[in-house]
Amino acid sequence: MLIEGAGLAAATTLLAWRWRRDQILLREQRRGFVAGCLGLLREPSLTQQGADYPVLRGRYRGHNVELRPLADTLALRKLPALWLSVTVEDPTGAPGVIDALLRPTGAEHWSPSERLPHRLPTPPSLPETVLLRADGEAAGALLPLLPAGFLGSTHAKEALITPKGVRLVVLVDEAERGPYLVLRQARFATAGLDADRARSLLEQAITLHAAVRARRPALGLAA
Q1: Residue 16 pLDDT exceeds 90
Q2: Is 193:34 a contact under the CB 8 Å cutoff?
Q3: Do 66 and 55 touch, CB atoms closer than 8 A?
Q4: Partners of 130 in the beta sheet?
């Protein structure tokens, strides 16, 4: 019994060591994901928790912005997805929150969609697969400002307008099928975020932010 107990303890220790080693390797591998975008921002700041993807914040064209990769492993019967959230974190003057979420699965833990109480009808200008929700009737006035061109693109996932800023979410990659089916490990082939793509998304987010700001007089809001 003592020998069996010692063997079990050794096996447990080995598994714990391997897990810590894998977490360290994963952290280092992911740390460079947004490195190619550091030059896009003024005063860039990079933060990383554990083995999560790092978050890049800074200033872009006079705005506070954030680039946040999101590894989504919760959706059932689907390969894990790697999303990119691009946020302009400056006040918009919007009268509420409105969210457009494409192809919702219920596993979008990073989205506020399920917490917004009002569902809005989908206009013909937006894809049929979009779920529109808002926090109140006033936010419905923002519906014409949702970026139809962005939401109609292949990799778009979400457009969010709030009084505190705007956010766009796109698909970056899906997990490799083999490692996920065999080992349940979410490995993504994309090693780094393309700076040109990040710049394009930042520009689209700033355009949306400016459109909301410009809409304030029509909504009866102070400048």
Answers
A1: no
A2: yes
A3: yes
A4: 102
